[in-house]
Design goal:
The strands form three sheets. This protein has a five-stranded mixed beta sheet, with helices on one face. A three-stranded antiparallel beta sheet has the order 4-3-5, with no helix packed on it. It has a two-stranded antiparallel sheet with strand order 1-2. The longest helix has 11 residues. A hairpin with a 5-residue loop joins β3 and β4. It has 231 residues and is of the alpha+beta class. Helices cover 19% and strands 21% of the residues. It folds into two domains: 93 residues, Outer membrane lipoprotein wza fold like (Roll); 109 residues, Outer membrane lipoprotein wza fold like.
C-alpha cells in the first residue's frame, strides 16, 4: 500500500521528512537508511495502509527468511523511533491494506513521516485558475480554493461548492459544502482534502442565465471522466 511499489535504491543520508513535516537529512552519510526513508522513496503510503502491521522480510546468513514486525503507528503517535528500523540490502518491506481506518489515524498519517510531501487536488469551474493544484497533506478546502486563485467574482457561486472524493475502496463520495472562507478546519464548511479530491465551483444564478449548461459541464467530463456519472 504505497504509491510506487517495487524495488528502490535508498542511499544513506537520503532526504526525508520529520514528524513535523520538515526536511531532514542524516548528518553522517555512512548511517544506513531507515524504513521511513524507503517508504519516502516509494512516494509514501496510501490512505488505507495498515502501518500497525508492517513486515520487513530479511534473508538470514543461513538462507532462511526472518520476518520483523513493525508498528509504524507508534512512530507517529509517541515518537518511538525504535520502530523506524535500519534496513539492510535486499530487505523487503510489506505494508498491507487495512480493513478500515479511523478519521484520527487518517489525519495523523497525512502529516506524518510516511506520507507524500504534497498531494494533488483539482479545483474546477468558476475560479481564477482552474485545474490541478499541489498542496500539502491536510490542506483544507478554503486553502485549495485560494491556491486556484480564488473565486471568479464575476461568475462564481461563492456560497457553496461541490466536493467529490474517490474513497480508498473505489467508491465515490459527493457532497455540497456551504462556503465560509473565515472558518477554521471543520468537516462541515472547511474539510481537510485528500489526494485527487475534486472541488467544483459552480456558477452564480446570473451567470447561469447567460450560459448553457453544456458550456460548463463538458470540460469537466473531458478532464475527469471517472466522475462522468456524477455530473
Amino acid at each position: 500500500e504505497v504509491y510506487r511499489p517495487g524495488s528502490h535504491f535508498v542511499q544513506p543520508g537520503q532526504l526525508g521528512r520529520d514528524n513535523n513535516g520538515g526536511a531532514n537529512r542524516a548528518k553522517d552519510e555512512s548511517i544506513p537508511p531507515r524504513l521511513s526513508q524507503a517508504i519516502a522513496a516509494a512516494n509514501g503510503i496510501k490512505p488505507l495502509a495498515d502501518i500497525k502491521e508492517v513486515e520487513v522480510k530479511r534473508k538470514a546468513w543461513d538462507g532462511s527468511e526472518k520476518i520483523i514486525a513493525v508498528d509504524l503507528w507508534q512512530v507517529i503517535k509517541s515518537g518511538d523511533t525504535s520502530q523506524d528500523i535500519i534496513l539492510q540490502e535486499d530487505d523487503r518491506v510489506i505494508i498491507p491494506k487495512a480493513d478500515s481506518i479511523s478519521k484520527e489515524q487518517s489525519r495523523e498519517l497525512a502529516s506524518g513521516t510516511f506520507s507524500p510531501e504534497t498531494i494533488t487536488v483539482n479545483v474546477v469551474g468558476e475560479v481564477v485558475s482552474p485545474g490541478a493544484v499541489e498542496v500539502e497533506p491536510n490542506t483544507p478546502l478554503n486553502n485549495a480554493i485560494l491556491a486556484a486563485g480564488g473565486f471568479d467574482t464575476q461568475r462564481a457561486d461563492t456560497k457553496k461548492v461541490e466536493l467529490v472524493s474517490l474513497k480508498p475502496d473505489g467508491t465515490v463520495d459527493k457532497r455540497m459544502i456551504e462556503v465560509d472562507l473565515g472558518a477554521e478546519i471543520n468537516d462541515e464548511t472547511n474539510p481537510v482534502l485528500g489526494q485527487n479530491d475534486v472541488v467544483v465551483v459552480g456558477r452564480s444564478g446570473a451567470t447561469k442565465t447567460g450560459d448553457s449548461i453544456g458550456t460548463f459541464t463538458s470540460p469537466l467530463r473531458g478532464l475527469f471522466g471517472i466522475f462522468n456519472a456524477i455530473f
